[in-house]
């Protein structure tokens, strides 16, 4: 009977191992889809800003437009590097990581769109895997707001807050735009929900005349 029991136990372990590999494979595919989705959307915004700059630029302003374009391409490279870092469990300083992310987002996405960014990031550490996926989520939310929240760019602002409260990281992306008229939809929200599940996080959104606010609550451990 001990032999049968051992075979049963071994079979259960193998099943759990295979299920774990399947989960990891789905998670990785999810991260890759979001990375590609994010690159496409960011390049779309970058291309629109370049067309606008060069359309408005006179002969004397072309060199300035080229300089701006070069800075945005460099910022986009920094942003993509941050979103493509190793997905491992090494400890990452939250403050430095997300301040770099917000800086790259501002230069590559928000400034060309005429949107100002404010950020308040609390110090702490997280595994690189959690930082990476949380960064993908924040980038999706910021880029979505830059694209849709501000038909009138006057005073456009996106604020990012990250706080460590009662054993959980609370991350908020808020804009002062027109406010979402319905639930978030499309590829972006499906990937957001999948990424949230992969780090055991919860998503909560609210919208009104003052803009849209989306909050991610993620366990610290």
Automatic annotation (TrEMBL):
Coiled-coil region: none
Domain Signal transduction histidine kinase subgroup 2 dimerisation and phosphoacceptor: 34-108
E.C. numbers: 2.7.13.3
Alphabetically ordered keywords of this record: ATP-binding, Kinase, Nucleotide-binding, Phosphoprotein, Transferase
Keyword DNA repair found: no
Matching Pfam families: HATPase_c_2, HisKA_2
Catalytic reaction(s) noted: ATP + protein L-histidine = ADP + protein N-phospho-L-histidine
Gene3D superfamilies: Histidine kinase-like ATPase, C-terminal domain
Enzyme class: transferase
Keyword flag Transmembrane helix: no
InterPro entries: HATPase_C_sf, HATPase_dom, Sig_transdc_His_kin_sub2_dim/P
UniProt domain Histidine kinase/HSP90-like ATPase: residue ranges: 117-217
GO molecular function, one term: ATP binding
Protein name: histidine kinase
Record organism: Bradyrhizobium diazoefficiens (strain JCM 10833 / BCRC 13528 / IAM 13628 / NBRC 14792 / USDA 110)
């Amino acid at each position: 009977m001990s032999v049968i029991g051992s075979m049963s136990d071994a079979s259960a372990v193998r099943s759990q191992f295979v299920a774990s590999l399947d989960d990891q494979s789905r998670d990785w595919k999810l991260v890759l889809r979001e990375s590609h989705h994010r690159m496409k959307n960011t390049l779309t915004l970058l291309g629109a800003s370049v067309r606008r700059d060069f359309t408005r630029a006179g002969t004397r302003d072309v060199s300035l437009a080229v300089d701006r374009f070069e800075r945005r391409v460099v910022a986009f490279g920094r942003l993509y590097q941050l979103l493509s870092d190793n997905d491992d469990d090494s400890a990452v300083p939250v403050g430095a990581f997300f301040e770099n992310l917000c800086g790259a987002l501002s230069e590559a996405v928000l400034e060309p769109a005429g949107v100002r960014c404010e950020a308040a990031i609390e110090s702490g550490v997280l595994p690189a895997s959690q930082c990476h996926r949380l960064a993908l989520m924040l980038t999706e939310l910021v880029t979505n707001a830059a694209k849709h929240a501000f038909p009138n760019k006057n005073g456009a602002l996106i604020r990012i807050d990250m706080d460590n409260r009662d054993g959980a990281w609370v991350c908020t992306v808020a804009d002062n735009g027109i406010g979402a008229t319905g639930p978030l939809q499309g590829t972006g929200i499906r990937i957001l929900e999948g990424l949230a599940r992969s780090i055991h996080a919860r998503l909560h959104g609210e919208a009104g005349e003052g803009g849209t606010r989306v909050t991610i609550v993620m366990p610290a451990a």
